[in-house]
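Regression report. Comparing outputs from two consecutive submissions.

Submission 1:
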Amino acid sequence: GFAVRPEAKALYHAAAVLASNDLVALLAEAQRCLRLAAPEAPAEALLALAESALRALRARAGDAPSALSGP
């Protein structure tokens, strides 16, 4: 585990929300874009991509910049 400084609890909460709820909201928006581009695409089509990105992040010990793919 780890300790959160009492004065940083709001920042800790913000980090947790960004990593969980905001991730889900971002995927919902990505699915909306996909439906506009390809209405026949299944809603779960982007989940494999998101899961792959999270695996890359975990493999790099949480170092987000090194887990990015693409040019």
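Submission 2:
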Amino acid sequence: LLATARKGRCNVMPMSWHLMMEFEPPLVGCILSNRNYSFEALRATRECTINIPAAKLLDKVRASTEPLLEA
């Protein structure tokens, strides 16, 4: 999950493509479309968090993304 915030608006986006690019220092790469709010917020603030939920949160994460998949 990629989390961003801008002008008081928080946003969490499920991310489907990411990879470990370097181990020392740790460096993670990811791909974002330039057609969504997450990209706009990240570009403007240059800040985000990449979050890996625990397995016990799987049902909650899935439930929060289902409306996106149905659209």
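Expected: both submissions complete independently.
Actual: both completed, but the second showed a warning that disappeared on reload.
Relevant detail on submission 2: The longest strand covers residues 2-6.
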